[in-house]
């Protein structure tokens, strides 16, 4: 299947799964419900949940088995954007061409909508129809990826200016936390959802780490920032294609079932926005 | 044992359990570690974790069995205070006589420390040495109490001015979410930790709801606010003692083991700060 068609179809399925797990009218105060929906249902690329679903398929599961962790990860991603956009952080008024959550609902409501989404992510996992021991692994992995030594830790380092270090290892250590950890967790959780063996889960986690790094290098290439400033554009492009190969190497033993992941890797490598 | 001595001893044990579960040096970026510790280890009353431990004892467990959920609940409470104090919310510069977290570490770091504490609360529960099905119940209950129709939902209603309604039912519906839900969850989680039966857990949950309401009435009596404005001081005092009796009624069938909870109820009823 053409990768664009595949991604469009996946996005629709992910959006449906997210809508079903967000609060419905009457489940909570209406302003909060609207702010949470606004933050989540505003047209992201859905890379993380699609990755979770594809990793689930790669170990022999059905994509929908991964819907609970896929939605949990996307809610974490969405909350992090809402908090990132706040005046005390990046102070952004627009995201994807639309007013940011705090511009639309006020700062306090945006802050609280972010808090509610982060909380709901764990609530969604606790309600996952899955054996209890996998559930509690998943919750631990998500907390690890999203928390103090994962995404939030990366944001703190980024704030402190560690990203402006002129050294690739320093840059990578920030990005592996700030964006990489949640992308890697998506693959890991998807493989768990699909009933993968320990070694398959470990391999897909490694795949996810490489994909997360690839994502960042390509961002830097598109923005002329970060590793492009350190390495120059040509070396950055080489690093991107080397990282894509490294990611794909983890897929070999999984055979055809990993086809979606392979296409997703190419998409991330070749994306132009 | 005298209730003050009991509470002091409990506070020391809770503080030790919290310290052990907060990040240690090297576990995450140092600024974040310090901001998280500052938010949690700054001398609160520890009502919620003490309540969880006492509910655990009330169903025949050892208090320490409840340490993981007790710490998780206290981390949620601490994060909510950090976010509440931010300029876009209550804009408070002092808490318990000390500079608030954002005054000390900057707004962005305080925001992120709150996010990290909320995430860590679920991480702590995922690592709880407890059977998996109790763990996943606990995680669901905590998410419910802390999230969109619990604490965060109550904050949104409070922001929208619903608290200023001149009607006791309206006021109670905000407070049952904003402060009541997490207090009630503490008792519920403690009873679960102690291996209580379904009906014991339900009874202690009901106890916790009454204790949460009592806590709020006494706050209002001390501040001359909320239900005192609606009912007048005398009726508010009567409501407090009636609510304390209602709470204690849930304890009858538990016998002497519920002694700590009974003393805790009296403490909340008679506290003067």
Break the fold down into its secondary structure elements and pairings.
The structure is a homodimer of 273-residue chains.
Chain A: H1 3-21, H2 30-40, H3 47-58, H4 67-85, E1 94-95, E2 98-99, H5 101-105, H6 107-126, H7 132-146, H8 151-159, H9 168-193, H10 198-223, H11 227-231, H12 233-249, H13 259-270
Antiparallel strand pairs in A: 1-2
Helix pairs in contact in A: 1-4, 2-6, 3-4, 3-9, 3-13, 4-6, 4-9, 7-9, 8-9, 9-10, 10-12, 10-13, 12-13
SSE topology string of chain A: HHHHEEHHHHHHHHH
CATH class category of chain A: Mainly Alpha
The H-level CATH homologous superfamily of chain A, spelled out, is Farnesyl Diphosphate Synthase
**Topology-level CATH name of chain A:** Farnesyl Diphosphate Synthase
Q: Please give the count of helices of chain A.
A: 13
Number of separate domains of chain A = 1
Task: Please state the average pLDDT score of chain A.
Answer: 95
Oligomerization status of the protein chains: homodimer
Computed over alpha carbons, the radius of gyration of chain A is 18 Å
Q: What are the segments of chain A in which pLDDT stays under 50 over at least 5 consecutive residues?
A: none
In helices, the fraction of residues of chain A equals over 70%
Kindly report the spatial arrangement of strands forming the biggest sheet of chain A.
Answer: 1-2
The biggest beta sheet of chain A reads:
2 strands, antiparallel
Biggest interface between chains: A-B, 52 and 53 residues
Structural class of chain A, by secondary structure, is mainly alpha
What is the CATH architecture descriptor of chain A?
A: Orthogonal Bundle
What would the principal axes of the Cα set say about the shape of chain A? globular
Strands of chain A, count: 2
The proportion of residues in beta strands of chain A is under 5%
Question: Span from first to last CA of chain A?
Answer: 21 Å
């Amino acid at each position: 299947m053409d990768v664009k068609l595949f991604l469009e179809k996946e996005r629709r399925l992910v959006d449906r799964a997210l809508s079903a797990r967000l609060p419905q009218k009457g489940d909570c105060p209406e302003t909060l419900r609207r702010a949470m929906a606004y933050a989540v249902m505003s047209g992201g690329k859905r890379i993380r949940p699609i990755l979770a679903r594809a990793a689930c398929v790669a170990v022999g599961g059905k994509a929908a088995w991964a819907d609970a962790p896929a939605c949990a990860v996307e809610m974490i991603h969405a909350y992090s954007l809402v908090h990132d956009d706040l005046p005390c952080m990046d102070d952004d008024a627009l995201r994807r061409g639309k007013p940011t959550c705090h511009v639309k609902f006020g700062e306090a409501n945006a802050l609280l909508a972010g808090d509610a989404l982060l909380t709901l992510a764990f609530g969604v996992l606790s309600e996952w129809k899955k054996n209890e021991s996998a559930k509690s692994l998943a919750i631990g992995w998500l907390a690890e990826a999203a928390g103090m030594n994962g995404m939030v830790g990366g944001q703190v380092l980024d704030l402190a200016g560690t990203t402006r270090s002129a050294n690739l290892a320093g840059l990578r250590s920030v990005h592996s936390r700030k964006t990489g950890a949640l992308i890697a967790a998506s693959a890991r959780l998807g493989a768990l959802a699909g009933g993968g063996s320990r070694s398959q889960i470990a391999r897909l986690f490694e795949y996810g780490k490489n994909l997360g790094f690839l994502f960042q290098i390509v961002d830097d290439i598109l923005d002329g920032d970060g590793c492009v400033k350190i390495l120059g554009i040509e070396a950055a492009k080489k690093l991107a294609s080397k990282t894509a190969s490294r990611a794909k190497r983890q897929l070999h033993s999984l055979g055809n079932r990993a086809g979606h992941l392979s296409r997703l890797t190419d998409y991330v490598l070749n994306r132009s926005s």
